[in-house]
Each structure stands twice: as C-alpha cells, then as structure tokens.
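Self-study notes.
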Amino acid sequence: MSKWLLRGLVFAALMVIVRLFQGALINAFETKAGMISITLVALYAVVVLIWGYADGRRDARANPDPDRRSDLAMTWLLAGLFAGVVSGLVAWLIGLFYKNLYVEGLINEVTTFAAFTALLVFLFAIIGVGLGRWLVDRKTPQQPRRRDGDDDRADTDVFAAVRDDRDGVQDYDNAATEQHTSPVAVAEHDEETRRNS
C-alpha cells in the first residue's frame, strides 16, 4: 500500500469518527456546539501534526542530504484529498440512516467539506514534516564542503571549466609580460656593457 493511501484511509476514518462524536456531543450539549467542534478539529489536527513530524524525522535521518529527501508534500496532499472526499462520502451515507450526524448534501460533502479536510491534513502535516526535519538537521553537525581536490564532482562542476579558463588566461598574460620585458632587459644590458667598455 502506498504511503499516501495509508494516510488517507487513516485520516478519512478518523474524520468520520470525529463527526460521529461531534453529532453525539452536540445533541447532548447544544449550547456548547462551537467549542465542541473546535476542540474536535484541534485534536484531529494534532494527530496529523504528530504523524507529519514522525515522517519528517524519519526522512531526515534516512537522507541527511536535503536534495535527496522524499517529496512528502505530495504524499500528504494526496492523503488529504483522499481523506476529505472519502470521509465526506462516508459521512453522507451514514447520515442517511443516523439522523444525529450533521451532514449536508452529497455535493457539498465531497467538495466543500472535502476541501476543508484536505487543507487541514496538508497544512498540519507539512508543519509537522518541517519541524521534524529541522530538529534532526539542527542536531546533525554540518559536513565541511570540499573545494580543492573535489574530483568526484569535477565532471558536473560547471564553474570548474571557468576557473580553468581564467587560470589559462593568467598564465598567458604572465608569459606575454615576460616576452615584452625580456628585449628591454637585454637592451639595457647591452647599453650598460658598451658604457663599461
């Protein structure tokens, strides 16, 4: 099973559970509906954040080079979209039989509510991933970058060719300067020889 599908299934199921709890609690405490909804969504977001954090730490430890790390943003985006659409569809189906569940029409459930769930999952997962990677990178000592004698990347170093060309120009300038000064030095030496004789 792919990473995004596993996460999508887990958070789709969790969102359906959250909505079932929301319906039951609001029916029991109608005056606290806003606080109940906010608290349940916050708990859902915390679970997403923790999973994203674990993903970020695991990826940073497996790949110390940031350029070689997994594309967790796409994984979590797909997971969020899947969780949103599936949870909206399942909640709508449950709402046909369980009237205490607060659901809207099918189109609204698989579009508006799905978009909210997808954004919630993606946003908090990416925050968790970034936090996990940052904490691992902060504790990892920086590797010194080799400049001279870095032969293993010489074939892909674009600036190596430019440096070589500049060295060649300097060598040519030095040789030309020596050639221009050599006849003058010889002439001065001849003049001094004539005077002495």
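Second protein, same conventions, sequence then structure:
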Amino acid sequence: MESHLPASQRVVVTGLGVVASLGHDVDTFWKNVLAGQCGIDRVALFDPTNFACQIGAEVRDWSAEQHMDPKEARRNDRYTQFGFVAAKQAFKDSAIDMAAEDSDRVGVLIGSGIGGMQTYETQLKKLFEGGPRKVSPFTIPSLIVNMCSGLFAIEIGARGPNFGIVSACATATHAIGEAMHMIKRGDADVMIAGGAEAAITPFAYASFCSMKAMSTRNDDPKHSSRPFDLGRDGFVMGEGAGVLVLESLEHAQKRGARIYCEVTGYAATCDAFHITQPDPEGKGLSMAMKRALAASKIAPESVDYINAHGTSTPYNDKFETLAIKKVFGEYARKVAISSTKSMTGHLLGAAGGIESVISVKTIQTREIAPTINLSEPDPECDLDYVPNVKRSANVKTVLSNNLGFGGQNAAVVFRAL
C-alpha cells in the first residue's frame, strides 16, 4: 500500500549494526543466520559447573579495544561496548556526515534490559573483599542503562534526544519504535536506536536458574534453544547488540542515502496480568500487533513474515502462537514465522535490536531465516515456523514481536519502499 504521508513524516532505515555470537558485523551475522548456524555453547565467561543452566550464546573472541578507544573500553561495561560498536557500525553503514548535519537534530536511543551486570558483580566483590575504597570511581557510569546512548552521542557529537529505555526483553523494539515517533513528530531528523545486553554473568544466571526459566539441555548446547518444539525446556541467554539508523524519508532522500526499507508502524502495550508470565489469552501482544498494523495502514494479510519473540519457553511460544491467530485469523496458517532465538539465544533487552536487523535484511535479501531445532512441533504451536532451513520469498512486509517481564509488549512493522 502506497503511503500518503509527507516525506518528512515517513521514517526509513539507512544503517544497520550487530554484535552477536554469530558475528561481530552484519554480513557475517546474516550469513550465519541464513545458514542455520547456532551460536550457543558451554559458557566460558565464568565457570558454570554449579549452575543448572551451563550454556549461552556468548560473543567470543571479543576485543573492544579494536573498535573503540582502549581507555573508554576499560571504563565501560561489556554491554556498553557491544552497543557502542553496533552503533558505530550502523552509523558508518548509513554514511551520515555529521559535518553536514544539524547535530541538535541527531539523537541516540539505545536501551538495555539489565545494563552493567558485569560491573555490578565485579565492584560488589571489591566492596565486600577490600572495602569501599576499592570500588572504582567509574562504577556508576559503567553500570547505568543510559550510558551507551550517552557515550555514542559524545563520539559523534549528537545533541538531539538521548536516553536509555528499559522494558526487559521488549527494550530494543521500544527504543526503535519511540525513535520512529521522535522523527515523525519533528523532534529529530536522525535517530540511532536499538539495544545492548551482556548479562552472561554468575549472578544473572543464578537468578534466572532460580526461576527455572532457562534450558538445562547442557549436554547438547546447539540443540538447546527449541522454539515451538514439544521438547523445549526454557530459554538460552545470548549477549550482544543490534542498532538501526532511522531517518525521515525527506532527510534521507535529500542526502542521497541508500535506504533499506521503511518503518511504518509500532505499538506498545501491557498485559497487566503477571510479572513474568505472558497473558494466556495473548491479549496484550495481539493488541500490540493490531495497533502496529493499523498505524501502518496495512491489513494482516499483507504481512509476509513475522519474526516471533519465540523464546523456547513452554508459556511464551504457546501464547504467542495464540496471539498471532487472534490477529491474523485463517491467514495465520499462511504467513511465514520464525524464531531466530533458536540460533542467537535470547539477548534480553537487545533481542529486538538484532531481530529488527534480521527483519530488515529479510526484506533486502528476500531470504527468510529458519527456526532451527524444530523436530517435533508442539500440537499447540501449529503454524508455519520455517523449520530448520531458510526459505526464499518475495518479502515486502515484516512484523517483529518482543515481550518483556512486567507484561510489556512491543511490535514493529518494516516495509519495502
């Protein structure tokens, strides 16, 4: 459907950046995703022997000093490093020249669900073992959730809207959607938006394990994340960052930018049901999808692909399937759906960032990423989840979903121009 909005109110994607277990750049990451590679293995960042879950999708062979000032790398948490580097990639990909921009109209909105967990643990240990004088003066700047946005704004000199969104696993999608709205209402011409997370730490693992939320398929890491499969037993944590550069269509066209696609709609809702469990009737998520499609002026039947939240937990996959059926009716059985968390693990607050990158790349390349490890479908999860092998298709419209503890839901729609 052709948009009748003025170009100044239409928002497009002009840059992509990723740091993840499957690659430290977009091209490597996308190649591995389409190949159905799995980034999950035994945890190496700490000794997981005494933990119920001993697996995760870690960013291996990581050296932040190769991508940012070594002093800044040492002062900042791992989550900030990931977000900074992904933002740097996306900004470079967009080819924006800050010397030609009004820096007051360039903003950064990179969120995190948890923030500097590694810093928390490291500095608390110093406090308990050595007393208050041993705690680093950089502790607070390193662990707070808005620091990634602030640090990257300093890097490029962006003085526009800047803060960190926190909504658990819906964080990055909320950041991208809110950044879109900022451009639409005229607060900025350019927004760098997404999410970053680095919570593969002993305290985070102990906490999630106590909730019995994580997979314990420790003897078979590559097959542990099994969205929509009858044998799924919990999510597997991942880490990294996904960041997009968004611009008004008018601004992008004026500077001759390469445009990936348009962001046509976004919605945020709350289940108001339970602190960790999704609404069993899918009310909140289905409303988010309906509103995102309505904002896009797109009928459900126009959606070619859904990147599902698909966490590989017993509740989420069943209830998300129900929510999709509520929104799409009979067409739910025809639309292609996949959960890329089967390969990347669940990046918590960064999940929507890398999944938005996947959504954009799906439109660009006309290749749909698979849901791997789907060998015995759950009878209650009976839709087309693109099992195990990628699929070529003329994808023009993509819907991406994310849900977070607290009942937060987010849905965003990407569409080819």
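Instructor comment on the second fold: The chain has two domains: 12-254, 265-415.
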